[in-house]
Design goal:
The chain has 142 residues and is an all-beta fold. The protein has a single domain, classed as Porin. Helices cover 3% and strands 63% of the residues. It has one helix and twelve strands. Strands 1, 2, 3, 4, 5, 6, 7, 8, 9, 10, 11 and 12 form a twelve-stranded antiparallel beta sheet that branches.
Length: 142
């Protein structure tokens, strides 16, 4: 996978506080020293977006790896799209490879937003394989 290339074939299934949401697709991007998986699940008003970030590795093989400097997660609920909830605890089991354009990930994390007294308990599964010609710069706002 070249720098700033993206993968456009995949599926995200997640639960937010026990409510299940599915998506028909997701994307995987490489920015050189990181890989990010981005996807949406749910309806117009329910569900949300997930971003899973993997740092400083072209490949990751992990089983029940705790949240830390190697990966982070974010959740943006559709009911509150102006806020990005950041994971502060969680685990991940994953095979993620830039070289083979492959991501198979199961995740579970607690997402918090500063000053809000409740959390989002997020759990899910992600798989994707296959690339398109989109670049990171054409999708992300810097």
């Amino acid at each position: 996978m070249s720098d700033k290339s993206s993968l456009g074939v995949g599926q995200l299934i997640l639960t937010d506080n026990g409510q299940r949401f599915e998506a028909g697709g997701g994307n995987m991007y490489s920015g050189g020293n990181y890989i990010v998986l981005v996807g949406n699940a749910g309806s117009v008003s329910d569900g949300g977006s997930i971003q899973l970030w993997f740092y400083d590795t072209p490949e990751l093989w992990a089983l029940n790896m705790p949240l830390g400097s190697s990966w982070k997660a974010e959740f943006i609920p559709r009911s509150d799209p102006g806020r990005t909830w950041t994971a502060n605890a969680g685990t991940i089991s994953a095979v993620v490879s830039q070289r083979d354009a492959l991501a198979i990930v199961s995740f579970k994390f607690t997402a918090r937003y500063p000053g809000v007294p409740f959390t989002h308990e997020i759990e899910g599964f992600w798989h994707c394989k296959g690339f398109n010609a989109l670049t990171k710069d054409s999708v992300f706002k810097e």
